Amino acid sequence: MPIGPAWGTCTDTAALAAPTSPLTRPTPAPPRSTSHARPPHNSHTQSPQCCYGNFTAAVAGGIDFVDLAGKTQGKDAPAFGDASHKTTLNGFPFHFTSDANRAAFDADPWTYAPAWGGF
Questions:
Q1: Residue 62 phi, psi dihedral angles, 5° rounding
Q2: Residues 102, 106, 108, 109, CA torsion sign
Q3: What's this model's pTM, rounded to 2 decimal places?
Q4: Cα separation of 71 and 113, whole Å?
Q5: Residue 115: what pLDDT?
C-alpha cells in the first residue's frame, strides 16, 4: 500500500476506511485543561493538589537521608532516624540517626533531600 509524503496520508482509499489499518492516524488527544493546575511547589497549602501537607510527621516516615545516600539500592535497607536528631527544611521535619548526619544535612540539605521537593 503506497504512503504519501505526510504521516497517515494514504493513496489507497479502502485502507483509509478500514479501522484496523496500521496506517490510520490515531485520534488526537483533547487539549489539556488548565482548570486543575497544581499550585507552585513552594506554596505550602493544605489543598487537594498538595502532595504532602503534614508538617508534623517526619518526611518519608523518618528515613535518615544522609545515611540513605551511602546505601546500595535494592541491597541495603534504609535506616530510620528519630526526633532527638531532627531538623527542618522548608517547614518539613527530617529525622536522623545521629547528630553528625543532621549536621551534614544542615550543611547542604539539597544534596540529601528528595529531588524536586518530592516529599
A1: 100, 15
A2: positive
A3: 0.55
A4: 15
A5: 84
